[in-house]
Q: What sequence folds into this?
């Protein structure tokens, strides 16, 4: 059995579904079920004996110790995190608590579990920490892409808190010998993404004829990674990654934010035509504070060592994503109620 933290969130739920669809061993999913944790993402696993759910906070060390003692996982895949930059600007405390303190408590529980394992199980155990390229800071137009040896220079409370968690994971390997491995990924997109993030927000707004808010000049560059490709990379790192190492995971798809929005508009026009198209809905709004200009991933290490490369192009991934959101309107409507609506009002009301 493996244990997944944050498995009801966007990337975590895609990983759990992908893992079990591929015939992986049973999964116990530990999720606090905050606003971004959605059990509906995993509704298709209802009645599947290979899937178990435990509602718990990774920051509750006693709860995590009890779960580890009950299920005795051979690996932990750690997705659980507060992950939205804008939310971290409005309320950084939760990010420090979950991403730094929570990861520390989880590492302590994992260390105790690992030390108690028989020798063969102890040797095979892995703690895989899923992180972000944002810990490396911001690049200029001409800077080389982030590699695994790029110095950390986080610029938001979110990325700083993730950097802190990365450093703790590294320290637990070097100080205690805990067999950890870390992945730093670029911007993910795909099914089940909470619709405050760029791509699902734009799809939802466009379908309702609402403005498509683009921060600043829209020329910020991100590398875009389809979530299914990310899940495959994590599987490979879990199976064959070297302990104590870091692997960057990128989509080979650097795009300006405005390019992404235009691609979404054009794909929607093909799949659900609108008189006059969708591009006219683009609206420029005040930029976020400290907005990083460019992220780019050098993923040569994971390709060379593990043979991983993304299967989806940006164009094929966007097409799959738009089709999924069109086919799952009920899911979108459910997650856009309540807390989401309050957040959108809070974040965008003064940006016009």
A:
């Amino acid at each position: 059995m493996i244990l997944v933290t944050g498995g009801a969130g966007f990337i975590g739920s895609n990983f759990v579904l992908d893992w079990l669809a591929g015939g992986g061993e049973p999964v116990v999913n530990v999720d606090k079920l905050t606003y971004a944790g959605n059990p509906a993402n995993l509704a298709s696993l209802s009645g599947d004996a290979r899937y178990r759910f435990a509602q718990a906070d990774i920051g509750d060390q006693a709860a995590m110790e009890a779960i580890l003692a009950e299920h005795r996982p051979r690996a932990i895949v750690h997705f659980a995190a507060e992950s939205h930059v804008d939310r971290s600007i409005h309320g950084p405390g939760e990010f420090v608590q979950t991403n730094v303190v929570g990861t520390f408590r989880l590492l302590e529980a994992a260390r105790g579990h690992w030390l108690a394992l028989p020798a063969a199980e102890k040797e095979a155990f892995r703690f895989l920490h899923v992180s972000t390229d944002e810990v490396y800071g911001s690049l200029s137009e001409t800077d080389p892409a982030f590699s695994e040896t790029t110095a950390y220079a986080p610029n938001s409370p979110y990325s700083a808190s993730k950097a802190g968690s990365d450093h703790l994971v590294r320290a637990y390997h070097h100080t205690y010998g805990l067999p950890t491995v870390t992945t730093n990924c670029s911007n993910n997109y795909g099914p089940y993404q909470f619709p405050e993030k760029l791509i699902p927000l734009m799809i939802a707004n466009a379908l309702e004829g609402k403005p498509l808010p683009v921060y600043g000049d829209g020329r910020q560059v991100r590398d875009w990674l389809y979530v299914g490709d990310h899940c495959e990379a994590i599987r490979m790192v879990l199976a064959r990654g070297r302990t104590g190492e870091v692997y960057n995971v990128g989509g080979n798809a650097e795009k300006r934010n405005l390019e992404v929005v235009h691609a979404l508009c054009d794909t929607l026009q093909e799949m659900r035509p609108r008189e006059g198209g969708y591009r006219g809905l683009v609206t420029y709004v005040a930029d976020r504070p400290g907005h990083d200009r460019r992220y780019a991933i050098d993923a040569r290490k994971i390709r060379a060592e593990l043979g991983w490369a993304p299967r989806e192009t940006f164009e094929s991934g966007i097409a799959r994503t738009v089709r999924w959101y069109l086919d799952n309107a009920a899911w979108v409507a459910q997650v856009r109620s309540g807390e989401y609506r309050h957040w959108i009002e809070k974040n965008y009301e003064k940006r016009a």
